[in-house]
C-alpha cells in the first residue's frame, strides 16, 4: 500500500487531504474573524497551509499548521507587542481544528518590509509546541504573557526545533519527504521549491499559498 506522502503527492485526493483542508479552512475562518473583529493594524493574514512532515506507524499524518501575518510594506522593525498579540490569535485559531491530529509544532510566520503575505523582504517565525498552545488555550491561568515567557525560556540555539522565538521562516517546500496541503491541493516539496522564487515570497508560497486572508 502506498505511504501517506505518496498518496498525498499522487493524482488522487486521499481522505487525509480532505480532512486537513477542512481543518485548515476552519482555522483560517476563525483567525480572519478574530483579527478583523479586534482591528489589528496589519495588511493581511491567513492560515496558509498544512505541512505534512511525516507519518505515524499507522499512516496518520504528522503536521505543521502554518499561520502567516503581513505586518506591512513600510514596517522594518516590527512591534513585538503586536507580534505576540498575533501569536495569541494564531494559537486560539489553530488549536481547536487541529486538536486531535499529531502536531509536530505550529508555525506562526510574519512578513514585513514588503508587500502582501508572500512578497515581503523579511520573514520571521515563532514556532510553538503543541503542549504550550494547548495550555494557553485551555488554562485560564496561563495567559499570553506566560506563553511568551515560556517560549522565550525554552528557546535554544537550534532554530529548527520548536519552540523558536523570531527565527528565520522555514521553507517547507524545500524539505525532503514532505507534502504541503493548501487550497484543495497538495504539492511535493521538491516540485514546489523549483516553482517558487528565491525570495521570502518563494519561501512562503509553497508552504502556504492557500487559505483565506483578512
From TrEMBL:
Q: Where is this region: Disordered?
A: 9-28
What is the protein name given in its UniProt record? Uncharacterized protein
Source species of the chain: Halogeometricum borinquense
Amino acid at each position: 500500500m502506498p505511504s501517506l506522502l505518496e498518496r498525498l503527492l499522487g493524482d488522487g485526493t486521499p481522505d487525509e487531504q480532505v480532512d486537513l483542508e477542512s481543518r485548515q479552512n476552519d482555522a483560517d475562518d476563525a483567525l480572519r474573524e478574530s483579527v478583523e473583529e479586534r482591528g489589528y493594524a496589519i495588511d493581511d493574514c491567513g492560515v496558509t497551509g498544512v505541512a505534512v512532515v511525516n507519518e505515524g506507524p499507522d499512516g496518520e499524518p504528522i503536521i505543521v499548521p502554518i499561520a502567516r501575518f503581513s505586518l506591512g510594506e513600510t514596517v522594518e522593525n516590527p512591534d513585538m507587542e503586536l507580534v505576540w498579540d498575533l501569536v495569541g490569535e494564531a494559537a486560539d485559531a489553530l488549536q481547536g481544528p487541529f486538536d486531535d491530529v499529531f502536531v509536530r509544532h505550529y508555525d506562526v510566520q510574519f512578513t514585513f518590509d514588503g508587500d502582501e503575505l508572500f512578497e515581503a523582504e523579511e520573514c520571521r517565525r515563532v514556532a510553538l509546541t503543541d503542549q504550550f498552545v494547548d495550555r494557553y488555550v485551555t488554562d485560564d491561568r496561563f495567559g499570553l504573557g506566560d506563553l511568551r515567557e515560556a517560549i522565550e525560556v525554552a528557546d535554544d540555539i537550534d532554530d529548527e526545533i520548536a519552540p523558536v522565538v523570531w527565527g528565520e521562516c522555514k521553507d517547507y517546500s524545500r524539505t525532503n519527504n514532505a507534502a504541503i496541503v493548501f487550497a484543495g491541493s497538495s504539492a511535493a516539496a521538491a516540485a514546489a521549491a523549483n516553482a517558487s522564487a528565491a525570495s521570502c515570497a518563494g519561501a512562503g508560497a509553497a508552504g502556504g499559498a492557500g487559505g483565506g486572508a483578512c
